[in-house]
Design a protein that fits this description.
The protein is an all-alpha fold. Among the domains are: 138 residues, Serine Threonine Protein Phosphatase 5, Tetratricopeptide repeat (Alpha Horseshoe); 68 residues, no CATH class. Helix content is 72%, strand content 1%. The chain has 28 helices and 2 strands. It has a two-stranded antiparallel ribbon. The relative contact order is 0.05.
């Protein structure tokens, strides 16, 4: 019997085509960030003796269910079946044992790199290896593993350019990242597959180039293809849109921010750690932007008088309580292991007065850092994670000035806590506010000037803080320059935000007038299908739902999708009715 190969053209040890089909589907679900990762369970049902099937099941349990117990059990099953495994499958097992059993991220990343050296077309190994280097805060390694033979073997393939683009952006190569992301969009379009990770990489590149309005427009235009994403990718891409609005900072943006948080970012899967991470980071940034920088030893004052506060303070507190309720449900075993997540959760617990939760989490952070199995990683965590956590406790409790001493020695190395530059940026904003509270004017001005240069002088909040710090430092000329920049940005963004709001109003007005008849036609067709063939009712109703969603924001491409869905339902109805009238 000829050996079976998978979607990447790589040999596998199973003789079950059904098992390989399930594994291929799982790999594609991972690459498209879909919501059907459980499909891998069919692989071990089809072939209970295939080691790689169990290894991929371990990935599912670890990544989507956060179940270390089930993941370890799957790896144990895979170890018992190693006798028939291919060399690549054996290398996979070593990588996952390093990750899940030993907790050695660096070793696991190196083993995935070894897989790629022998099998450069293995996009799943590339995806997992890149993410591990990402968690370790080493973007240069994310980029390195995608170069050379790997780049040659995957040129023009869907998903590859998106992975490269994100690595380029994390390494600070923004122009190259943007160009690569656009190339990735073309590849996925030609292959007719969704690629939300490439959309995500493009959002990163535009954000750090200060192209805020362009980012909002582009990402909202792509959002129609995110409907089948897992909760992380769906909420995270909307989180990026929220960041564009937050940095633009007009009154319309603040209103939009609340809508996005309540309807797009929080609530899809409240138990998911990545959804919680996004919600925590956005709530903290939201608070920091709504607070005027205090003078030394003074309490901060809200900026509601300036029209850029959080609006309904009660509603904002309700958001915090809801998010922290679900974070707290993770228990001690569910926190203290993801450094960035734990820093943000710690801020939330302290700021909301949940002292017992904060104390337990801080102690867990310290113990996990000290117990890290690899010496290099242990040193990073004890020198960066622990002191910054100590500073956050003080900062969130209102003692911002005293937090400087803990944060100052750690903030430049925050990459070691994981997360992207955008996700970690909230920590740097905390440090900035601590500097301002402590009266460290020169240091605060240098950091603010650096941030303004890096973001192409596009963020009003940075100009506002600069004007305030320059005034406290007595630098009158610089105060005027910063205020002029703030005024120019505010006027420009106000016009752009108003144009967006007007376009949304036009779409809302245009939608209801032309669409009721079309919607009634879809529903009538679906009713005919259900009446003539009850078994087809769910399919018909799904088509109706897709069509209805397509016209919710009536962009031209979505109208096309809506009409296609309507035609499909109508055709199905006609066929079923005709068959029912002709056949006994």
């Amino acid at each position: 019997m000829d050996q079976i190969i998978d979607m990447n053209g790589l040999a596998v040890s199973t003789v079950s085509h059904e098992a390989v089909q399930a594994a291929d589907q799982f790999v594609e679900e991972v690459l498209v960030y879909g919501n059907r990762w459980h499909c891998i369970l069919a692989a071990v049902e089809a072939d209970p003796n295939w080691s790689l099937g169990y290894i991929l099941c371990a990935d599912y349990h670890m990544s989507m269910r956060e179940s270390q117990v089930d993941a370890k059990e799957c790896l144990k099953m895979a170890r018992d079946l190693m006798g028939s495994a291919t060399p690549r499958e054996a290398q996979y097992l070593l990588a996952y044992e390093a990750l899940v059993v030993e907790g050695d991220l660096r070793k696991a990343a190196g083993l995935f790199s070894a897989v790629l050296e022998a099998h450069p077309r293995d996009l799943f190994a590339l995806k997992r290896g890149q993410l591990l280097w990402f968690f370790l805060g080493q973007p240069e390694e994310m980029l390195r593993v995608a170069q050379g033979p790997v780049a040659e073997a995957n040129r023009g393939r869907p998903f590859f350019d998106g992975m490269v683009a994100f690595a380029l952006e994390q390494a600070g190569q923004l122009s190259e990242a943007e160009a690569t992301a656009w190339r990735g969009l073309e590849s996925s379009k030609e292959a007719q597959v969704p690629d939300p990770w490439t959309h995500h990489a493009l959002a990163h590149a535009l954000y750090f180039q200060g192209r805020l309005t362009e980012g909002i427009s582009l990402m909202q235009g792509l959002a129609g293809s995110w409907g089948r994403c897992c909760s992380f990718m769906l909420t995270h891409n909307w989180w990026h849109i929220a960041l564009f609005h937050l940095d633009r900072g007009t009154p319309q943006d603040w209103v939009r921010l609340g809508v996005l948080f309540d309807t797009r970012i929080w609530g899809v899967d409240k138990a998911n750690i990545q959804d919680q991470l996004g919600a925590l980071g956005l709530l903290i940034k939201w608070e920091l932007r709504a607070i005027a920088p205090p003078s030394p030893n003074q309490a901060p004052e809200t900026m509601s008088a300036l029209g850029c506060g959080m609006g309904d303070g009660v509603r904002h507190e309700e958001r915090w309580i809801d998010v922290l309720h679900h974070v707290a449900r993770r228990g001690v075993s569910g926190t203290g292991a993801d450094p960035l997540f734990d820093l943000l959760a710690l801020y939330g617990f302290v700021s909301m007065g949940l002292g017992d939760n904060a104390e337990a989490l801080f102690n867990r952070i310290v113990s996990n850092a000290e117990a890290c199995p690899t010496p290099e990683r242990r040193l990073d965590l004890t020198q960066v994670w622990v002191p910054f956590a100590r500073g956050i406790r003080r900062f969130a409790a209102g003692d911002r000035a005293s937090a400087v001493s803990d944060m100052r020695g750690a903030w430049r190395r925050l990459a070691v806590v994981g997360g992207s530059s955008e996700q970690r940026d909230v920590l740097i904003e905390m440090f900035l506010h601590a500097l301002l509270a402590a009266g460290c004017w020169d240091e605060a001005c240098r950091l603010l000037e650096q941030r303004q240069r890096e973001r192409h002088h596009a963020v009003p909040e940075t100009a506002r803080l600069l004007a305030w710090a320059y005034r406290k430092r007595g630098d009158t000329a610089s105060v005027g320059q910063a205020r002029r920049e703030l005024l120019d940005l505010s006027e420009r963004y106000a016009l752009e935000a108003e144009r967006e709001a007007e376009e949304r109003r036009r779409q809302e007005e245009r939608g209801p007038r032309g669409q009721p008849a079309l919607q009634m036609a879809w529903e009538a067709a679906a009713a005919q299908v259900a009446k003539a063939a009850p078994a087809a009712a769910s399919t018909a109703q799904a088509a109706v739902s897709a069509a209805r969603a397509a016209i919710a924001e009536p962009l031209e491409p979505q109208f096309l999708v809506a009409w296609v869905a309507a035609a499909a339902v109508a055709a199905s109805a006609a066929v079923v009715v005709l068959r029912s009238s002709l056949l006994p």
